[in-house]
UniProtKB/TrEMBL annotation:
InterPro entries xrefs: TAT_signal (IPR006311)
Bilayer-crossing regions: 47-68
Organism of origin: Kitasatospora cineracea
Residue ranges, compositional bias (Basic and acidic residues): 1-28
Keywords: Membrane, Transmembrane, Transmembrane helix
Name of the featured protein: Uncharacterized protein
Region listing for Disordered, in residue ranges: 1-29, 73-92, 248-268
Top-rank taxon: Bacteria
Length: 400
């Protein structure tokens, strides 16, 4: 693959996956970072353009992260009081973080995690993703997973996985007639710092797992000689039948397909809805949603909002809860534990407006093993999440 065609492929895949809103640090492992070490980091990111992983975590979450000033407006506004109170669970079904964490080798600690849930009335997305920072006693390393529906899409497969001369790669037969591409690579001679396994099933289910020898996505300073999971371990995980349980939550028809942001972006900025004291470290925006990472006094928050027009399954799901005086229906979950995460918790508020637009806001405390924040609720309360969800400026992509 030429360099130009590789970039074309990356751009096309980024446009598809960006619309799912499913990456948890928009400045993820595959974006090229600015700074004095840009050349080296660019090489490492190019080596991660693996069978769809080029945009697996980054594009799903949105655009390149930037440093921003702290938000200055309280989340809960007057509109919050007009709606009926939270009722029912905001999401059901499996968690990508749990699915991966529960299949890790014995003794591996989960230091940080954030990822997607699938539910009976989940938002329609083409891909779901998660990231975990792991430690096997020899240093922390990042692992990412993307599960997507690629029916009708052209996706790169086979070897080579990168343009590095320091790469090993092979294609193996996968279960149920699928294909498994497994490789490891690095821009430098010596230990290979990136490993990837990509499984593509005959039904269009695609699973991409990548492991890195760094723990910090932004700076990518090497924390260990090789990734915390070997290529063979990644291959076994990618071929695991557990990912089929996410199949029903995926759709090749992305509801934001063809949608674009206006010249000024969204009419509302998620960071503007944060209460005082929370400082935004990075954020991203795509047609149909926004995500940011924020902190207060060293405590981290991952906050996501998604808006789309509710389908019949979603409308039926919301019909089980009473509407408020303003016609808004709401479901919520507060500080639920993420199984297998060793400490991460999530709160979610999901609202259905009378105009048929569904807005879902999730707040994650990503802290895991060894963190004093493990097991604590996310920084924002359900009432604050409700205030964000009820901002009338949120619009579904097809409403722009």
């Amino acid at each position: 693959m030429s360099e130009q065609s590789e970039h074309d492929f990356e751009d096309r895949l980024a446009q598809v996956l960006r619309r799912t809103g499913d990456g948890f640090r928009p400045d993820g492992p595959h974006l090229v970072a600015a700074g004095a070490a840009r050349g080296r980091r660019r090489q490492r990111r190019q080596l991660a353009l693996v069978a769809g992983a080029a945009a697996a975590v980054v594009a799903a979450g949105g655009l390149t992260a930037v440093l921003l000033p702290p938000g200055g407006r309280a989340a809960a506004g007057p509109a919050a009081g007009r709606s009926g109170g939270p009722s029912g669970a905001a999401a059901d079904g499996p968690s990508l973080v749990s699915a991966l964490a529960e299949r890790l080798p014995a003794g591996v600690r989960v230091l940080r995690s954030a990822g997607d849930w699938s539910g009976v009335a989940g938002l329609r997305v083409a891909g779901e993703s998660a990231e975990l920072t792991l430690d096997d006693g020899h240093g922390a390393g990042l692992v990412t997973v993307l599960v997507s529906d690629v029916r009708g899409r052209q996706v790169k497969s086979g070897c080579p996985l990168s343009n590095s001369s320091n790469e090993v790669c092979e294609v193996r037969p996968g279960p149920d007639g699928g294909s498994l591409t497994v490789g490891a690579m690095d821009p430098d001679p010596g230990p290979r710092g990136t490993g990837t396994a990509a499984f593509t099933g005959p039904d269009g289910l695609r699973v991409v797992l990548s492991a890195y020898s760094f723990a910090d996505q932004e700076h990518q300073d090497r924390t260990r000689p090789t990734p915390v999971l070997t290529p063979d371990q990644l291959a076994a995980l990618a071929a695991d039948p557990v990912w089929a349980s996410f199949r029903s939550g995926l759709s090749p028809d992305d509801p934001s397909a063809g949608a674009t942001l206006g010249p000024d972006g969204s009419p509302v900025r998620l960071r503007e809805l944060l209460p005082p004291g929370l400082r935004t470290a990075s954020d991203s925006e795509w047609a149909g949603g926004q995500r940011l990472t924020a902190a207060q006094d060293g405590h981290e928050l991952v906050l996501t909002v998604r808006a789309q027009r509710a389908d019949r399954a979603a409308r039926d799901w919301f019909a089980a809860v009473p509407a408020g005086a303003d016609g808004v229906r709401m479901r919520a979950t507060t500080a639920r534990e993420v199984p297998g995460s060793q400490g991460a918790t999530e709160s979610a508020v999901d609202v259905l407006r009378p105009d048929g637009v569904r807005v879902r806001v999730t707040a994650v405390n990503p802290a895991g093993a060894g963190s004093p924040d493990a097991g604590k609720p996310p920084l924002l309360s359900a009432e604050q999440l409700r205030g964000i969800a009820l901002d009338p400026r949120w619009a579904a992509p097809d409403a722009r």
